[in-house]
Amino acid sequence: MKASDMAFRIAVCLGLIGMTGGVLMAASHNHDLHPAHAHLNLLGWVSLFLLGGFYRMNPSLDTRRGAKCQVLAWSFGTIVLATGVAAIYAGYPQAEPIAAIGSIIIVASMVWFAYFVFRPEPKPVSPGVMAAAE
Ligand code: HEM
Ligand code: HEM
Q: Which ligand is in closest contact with the Cα of 41?
């Protein structure tokens, strides 16, 4: 599976979970968990979908294992962060290290993504080289 497909699919799933949380908050008139809802939607739905868009626009990157690992690291970090933040706002301050670990994973995978964005464009393989290789 391409990195973009992976990002789009995970983003839709996290978005559905985040929005369901929003509906439950609205229905229950209890907005205590809104920071977890906000970050699940913003990191897991919006940002992850944007990452997928970047990979889709860069086909040579889209099939690379590094890109897929970056998407998985981002997704994992988002789930850990949202879980930790939800637990903190649900009255368990001891969950702070979980949120901290999640945020470190996300920042690390953002650095990883920045590397892909700033990396020099790979040189296109010329037909002559292809013929020689064949
Ligand atoms: C079915 C969809 C959604 C529902 C029913 C919903 C519901 C809610 C509710 C009830 C709150 C608490 C409001 C408050 O107490 O101030 C909230 C906060 C928030 N939601 Fe959603 N939400 C939905 C989708 C989204 C999406 C898709 C995003 C982001 C892309 C998002 C981002 C936020 C943010 C950033 C906050 C915090 C706002 C603040 O701090 O004032 N929500 N949402
Ligand atoms: C490593 C990633 C991130 C960390 C550790 C982080 C941390 C935080 C913290 C500590 C707050 C204050 C919460 C409070 O006072 O209740 C906050 C609020 C907020 N952040 Fe983030 N954030 C991250 C990424 C993002 C991203 C990528 C976006 C948008 C795309 C975003 C949007 C917001 C918004 C809209 C609020 C205010 C909503 C609220 O009150 O819950 N954050 N964030």
A: 1
State residue 119's pLDDT score: 87
pLDDT at 91: 95
Distance CA 7, CA 10 (A): 5
In ligand 2, which atom is closest to the CA atom of 47? 30
- Index of the ligand 1 atom closest to the CA of residue 15: 27
pTM confidence score:
0.91
Going by the DSSP 8-state scheme, the letter that residue 93 receives in this structure is G
**C-alpha 86 – ligand 1 centre gap (Å):** 14
Q: Where are the domains of the chain?
A: 3-121
Instruction: With both helix axes pointing from N to C terminus, report the angle between 65-89 and 48-57 in degrees, rounded to the nearest 10.
Output: 170
Q: For atom 8 of ligand 1, which residue has the closest CA?
A: 22
Which residues of the chain have a pLDDT value below 50? none
> In degrees rounded to 5, what are phi and psi of residue 30?
-120, 105
How many CA atoms lie less than 13 Å away from 103 in the CB half-sphere?
A: 10
Average pLDDT, the chain: 93
